[in-house]
Write a structure and sequence with these properties.
The chain is built from three helices and eight strands; from the N terminus they run H-E-E-H-E-E-E-E-H-E-E. The chain is an alpha+beta fold. The chain has one domain: Multidrug-efflux Transporter 1 Regulator Bmrr, Chain A, CATH 3.20.80.
């Protein structure tokens, strides 16, 4: 998966070797993402603000990535509804580790402030990654995200930028109810 290449390129650049990301083939052939619209970011420098988040940790395989994320967000939304909490921004998937077959993540929702009674068990309160990042926009199906991540990897390689070992997807709209073929996802790649 090209998402793995983001971690690979960060490791190669950290070692000082020339960046030559080897992007694995996209299963089933490369799907083309919907074209970007005027004003869509591709490599735009941004500063991610400090934010309190409520999140649930999870892991999954690439072949069921979107379903895994949706299930995690459904669990998080159920908890939020029971507690009377409202998110203060869009849903985030924070990828903390990837390999050829799968990934570890945090499905997160920003909060204005931490709740008085913090959650217990699988759901926790924490801070979203903050600081310098590059913003990229993806439009289209989640399956076509591989093409976007391949383009991001190539961009980082060409610019010889050193990425941190994580990346963030921010969903425009609720990922649990969104039409998967018409997603708009901001991908943030924190840089060193």
């Amino acid at each position: 998966m090209p998402r793995l290449a983001l971690f690979t390129i960060a490791a190669v650049l950290a070692l000082g070797a020339p960046a030559q990301a080897q992007t694995p083939a996209v299963p089933g052939g490369a799907a083309s993402p919907s074209p970007l619209q005027p004003g869509d970011a591709f490599g735009e420098p941004v500063n991610l603000p400090e934010r309190t988040i409520i999140f649930i940790r999870g892991e999954g395989t690439w072949d069921k990535a979107f379903e895994t994320l949706v299930d995690a967000f459904k669990s998080l939304n159920q908890y939020m509804d029971k507690q009377g909490l409202k998110p203060s921004g869009p849903a985030l998937a924070i990828y903390t580790a990837t390999d050829d077959t799968g990934f570890k993540f945090q499905a997160a929702l920003p909060l204005t402030q931490a709740p008085k009674n913090p959650p217990k068990g699988d759901i926790a309160i924490g801070q979203a990654p903050s600081g310098k990042a590059l913003k990229f926009v993806h439009r289209g199906s989640y399956d076509a995200m591989d093409t976007t991540y391949e383009a991001i990897t190539n961009y980082l390689d060409e610019k010889r930028l050193e990425a941190k070992d994580l990346f963030i997807e921010e969903y425009s709209g609720d990922p649990t109810t969104a039409d998967q073929s018409k997603l708009v996802v901001n991908v943030f790649v924190p840089v060193k």
